Amino acid sequence: MFLSALPIYPIAGIREIEGKLIPSARPPLMERAGRAAAEDAVRLIMDRPGPILIACGPGNNGGDGFVMARQLTQAGRDVQVAFTSEVSNLPAEAAKAYADYLAAGGHLVSDLPAAPAQGWALVVDALFGIGLKRRIEGRCAGWIQTLNAQPSPRMALDVPSGLDADTGLPLGTTFRATHTTTFISLKPGLLTNDGPDYCGDINVQRLEIDAPAWLPAAGHAVTPALFHGQLRPRPRNSHKGLYGDAGILGGNAGMVGAALLAGRSAFWLGTGRVYVGLLDPNGPAVDFAHPELMLRQAARLPERLSALAVGPGLGTDMNAATQLAAALGREVPLVLDADALNLIASDATLRTRLAARQVPSILTPHPAEAGRLLGIGTEAVQADRLQAALDIAARHRALVVLKGCGSIVASPDGRWFINGSGHPGMASAGMGDVLTGLVVGLLAQGWPAESALIAAVHLHGAAADRLAREGIGPIGLSASETIDAARGVFNGWLIEAQQGPHRDGTRDARPLITLGNH
Known about the structure:
The chain is about 40% helix and about 15% strand. The protein has about 525 residues and is of the alpha/beta class. A hairpin with a 5-residue loop joins strand 17 and strand 18.
């Protein structure tokens, strides 16, 4: 079945859980973390020749590294430990781990040793943990640069040193891991912004801790388990009227293609009927590539729709603003994208009408659009993507997806989700229009708004991932190509929901996040 949605905790949440557990945990959490990291290291390098280098810092992350070194030494592995500080600077538990490592026959050096002739089997970053909020400079920055230059696998403990575990922003020189073993739970910064580029594959070692039992999680990593209940087979006795009427409002002069992309993706995801209302007075009367779509002028969209999307190719002229204002007054689930968001950002009356809606509203901004909605710059949005998404959701009383690396779905009630599917090839024209169509298509078919948004975001990335595995992209992938792939992935999910995994044992998403045994 589908992998359960893993909880995500910001640093404050992890600290709260640790504070409740550390006084009574047996074995201690540091012992558990170091042991789990050692086991991950053995699985990672297998029979790769050469010694293991562990770089330990002056805090508890360094203590985890000392426990790991002791475990590996006792298992007969060749381990070299470089320590940046003095034992007198270590916290009590880390100092004990240091002493236990030496008592087990370990030794350490105060500078990074030169790589052996055959290279390191593995280099391990145990320099700084999740609490780091300053730039890494000087000697430690030099160590990280040297570690990053090694051709061996590079493993980070808990979080790559230099990466903000809350925001995913690198703080100066940052360790670039091929694998990250993180403890207790996922952290937001591992999954969004620059985090995925620095973390590599992530293994969550829960350390025999059921984190949600100690602190309910507001955030989760997106998997199909979150919308599994909506993946139901259709009855054989079906007709198109059972599967909704979706409307797309957009397609101003020179931008008709955006509205067509949204309409096609909604239709190919199984919507019963799709109406595309175009603002271009000279727009086409038929989509000859997909004549199933019903094209008409924007003012002639049907009054009775199951869901409506406004924004793909909308423009910002007076007609666009008038059509958007009318759409905000409809008692129908609404998806707002692109220029619909820009118009709302610039018009207080539209913002008031949006916040007053009593039926679901979904906003799908990229970082620049998010900045306009919040009245801040794009850089400020990216500096704390999670908070920006939550602020937009609360301010506009809407569900929000802040698009980008690790797209963040936020709810007005403060819950949030981070999506890991997709790849850089999706940074191309029209991808947002396809996502809008996927969302409105699921809404039109009666999906709850939150499930529709989470599923569409995950499906969009999973479709691109499937195409990349088939040699279509990542570079040069077009938005149009993802529409057919999304249909295939979605039908695969329906089969798996009813019958279990595919017969060949494969899944649609590469497992970049795994769970350890502890």
